[in-house]
Amino acid sequence: MPNILVAGKIHPAGLDILHNAPGFNVQLVHEVSVASYAPFIAEADALLIRTQPLTAKEIFAGKNLRMVSRHGVGYDSVDVAALTERNIPLTIVGNVNSLSVAEHTLSLLLALAKRICYFDSSIREGEWNRRNSFSAVEVAGRTLFILGFGRIGREVARLAKSFRMKVIAYDPFLPDNSFVESGVTRVADINEGLQQADAVTIHLPLSGDKAVIDADELALMKRHAILINTARGGIVDEEALATALQNDALGGVGLDVLQQEPPTLNTALLAQRDKLILSPHSAGLTEEAAMRMSISAATNIVNFFTGQLDTDLVVNKQVLALNDLMSQLP
Fold first, then answer.
1. Residue 232: closest CA among 207, 252, 198
2. From 232, 238, 288, 292, the catalytic residue
């Protein structure tokens, strides 16, 4: 009877799938932290994990661990190499939160373009006449540069075009027809796109330790340009970003992700208020997306133990081939 450890509160729809599957023991740890789930990892046959780290220490402590299901699509907080070393597959959810993240991206873009937070605070501070600054802008006719043209990037493009924005995009891993079908102009070089853009939105995975957007890239952007990051913290150099905002070198910044989450409150970046909007890594956490994520993450676990796992949702597919080979040995 497999023991399923759910590390962090998830939507009840996912828990229902696990509880209703015959032959499973389910243990839920509500808090999203390593310290909360680590004491129970040794007895777990499967782990459903949210955004907290899963390091080699926890992986090798899970002596019975046979699979890990990520409650989301990103997995930079998971030591995939350690899982692969133990022949443990890591699964992610399918296309369940693209719309939620795309809507959040457009919400940040529009809020910054229309100076929503700035005008809200002006009323509360008794500064009604800030309306005469004429600092809000229209997005129609302006150029949006999308870095990363996967599911979320394509959904952002669809929404942005409904606001009559000109959309250009960068993604070196996709064929040309992916851009043509979306009516989007392909950009081969990031720097070229940054120079053209009135707004930039990032939908790339975190790769290594080097930021994709640092001081050099920020210097290429137009002075009025808006920058949005709903992908991963660390993709944008936060110190360079704070300096750019201090120097009034950008029109606005919207961040759903930060390098440290939750952040230290006295950083130079968080001291910026006029043109910075923050949200707590919540772009994909709508009611609808949370339900779809929990269902997908739970279904991956059930399908693994019933031999029906969708291999397209497995990150380290090489372990599947090895496990198949071992199962055929006498």
1. 207
2. 232
